[in-house]
Each structure stands twice: as structure tokens, then as C-alpha cells.
Design a protein that fits this description.
The structure is a single chain. By secondary structure, the chain is an alpha/beta fold. About 30% of the residues lie in helices and about 25% in strands. The two termini are about 30 Å apart. Pfam families: ABC_tran. GO terms for molecular function: ATP binding; ATP hydrolysis activity; transmembrane transporter activity. One of its GO terms (biological process) is cell division.
């Protein structure tokens, strides 16, 4: 599903974010990406959906060579990749329903299909009753559920999550994690960067640890392994 081969990323200021990363993530896996702040976790995630490009190396997602991908094909790639951020990135002047529908509108899906699919994903994230409210009327956990619904609405094969529980209280964080696990159980590959030791140690999925831009640990049913 995802493969990186000898991937390096150096930013213009000289920061070496990733150094010689080689990794393969299979279809249907749930993978935590852990490590200290500044280790390269967010860069690792951004490379998978072409938000950043590697300085050197090859990246394949769903069989697509990202370096060979033309700019006009990037929206096609992102139809198959859902992305969830720590700060939600919802559009404040759109309702919950409109925020989720927007992701389908930009790929010009038929209106009838949009209505049906938005209804389905709002039911999945248990927010059907909040479809017509605005983001600032929601709790943090509810806003993150909307963000997840938006990420799922185009039926992506991969869901990337960069610190999705970082701004949430512990109880709300567990609700989000149960939702991500349910999504994964339906076959979606999930890759999640996190600092949350308790979640990683309790849920025991594959753990990829990055330090100074290098993978130092890659364990099935791994643990967080860092002080928080």
C-alpha cells in the first residue's frame, strides 16, 4: 500500500528531516509513527500525500510513484488518501454537512452521490444530529469527528492522521481512537503520528519510531518507548 525506498528530505534551511528511510506498509495495517518533537514524523506523513517532496528516494502509494506523478494528477492521488490534522482545518463558514460535502464537490462527484455519501459518513462518526450546525458550535472532539468524516467521504484506501488527538482531552481522545480502529477494521490502512503514550501502549499496533530523521525501531504490537 505504501513504500518508501531510501527517502531523504532536506529543507532549504539545511534541516535534514529524513535520512535514508526505507519502509513498507501493507494494505489494512494500523501503524503508529512515534518519536521526539522534530524527529521527522510530520515530514514522513506529508511525503505520503505529496504535501512535501523528497530530496532523494522513491515513494509509492497504492501503486503510484509519487515522484513520477504530474501536478495535475495530485488531486486524483488525494482522492484515495484521507488526511486528518491536529487542528481540524474545518471551513468556519460552512456547516458540518457542507464541510464534508466539500471534499466530494472538489472532485466533481454527482450531487445525489454526495448527499448519500455525506449522510453515511456522518452516521459513521455519530454526528448526523449536528449536520446543520457550524464548527464553532461543536466541541473539539466533535470537530475532529467532522474532520475524519471529511477525510473518509471519498472512500480512501489510506487514512493519514498527524497528531489527531493532540488538542483533545483523554476521554475524547479515546473516542477518536475507537473510531479510527473501526475505520481500520473496515479495511482502510491507517498511519498515525502521535505523542500519546497511553494510546500506543494500550492499543498495541505496529509502531515505527523515528529519531533524527531515521527509523530506529519498527515493531509489530509495539510500545511508545519514550518519556512524555
Amino acid at each position: 500500500m505504501i513504500e518508501m525506498i531510501d527517502v531523504w528530505k532536506t529543507y532549504p534551511n539545511g534541516t535534514h528531516a529524513l535520512r535514508g528511510i526505507t519502509v513498507r506498509i501493507k494494505k489494512g495495517e494500523f501503524v503508529y509513527v512515534v518519536g521526539p518533537s522534530g524527529a521527522g514524523k510530520s515530514t514522513f506523513i506529508k511525503l505520503m500525500y505529496r504535501e512535501e517532496r523528497p530530496t532523494k528516494g522513491q515513494i509509492f502509494v497504492n501503486g503510484i510513484n509519487l515522484e513520477a506523478l504530474r501536478e495535475r494528477r495530485i488531486p486524483y492521488l488525494r482522492r484515495h488518501i484521507g488526511v486528518v490534522f491536529q487542528d481540524f482545518k474545518l471551513l468556519p463558514k460552512l456547516t458540518v454537512r457542507e464541510n464534508v460535502a466539500f471534499a466530494m464537490e472538489v472532485v466533481e462527484a454527482p450531487r445525489r452521490q454526495i448527499r448519500q455519501r455525506v449522510k453515511e459518513v456522518l452516521e459513521l462518526v455519530k454526528l448526523s444530529h449536528k449536520a446543520d450546525v457550524y464548527p464553532d458550535e461543536l466541541s473539539g472532539g466533535e470537530q475532529q469527528r467532522v474532520a475524519i468524516a471529511r477525510a473518509l467521504v471519498n472512500r480512501p484506501s489510506v487514512l493519514l492522521a498527524d497528531e489527531p488527538t493532540g488538542n483533545l482531552d483523554p476521554e475524547t481522545s479515546w473516542g477518536i481512537m475507537q473510531l479510527l480502529e473501526e475505520i481500520n477494521n473496515h479495511g482502510t490502512t491507517v498511519v498515525m503520528a502521535t505523542h500519546n503514550r497511553e494510546i500506543v501502549n494500550t492499543m498495541r499496533k505496529r509502531v515505527i519510531a523515528i529519531e533524527n530523521g531515521e527509523i530506529v525501531r519498527d515493531e509489530q504490537r509495539g510500545e511508545y518507548g519514550y518519556e512524555t
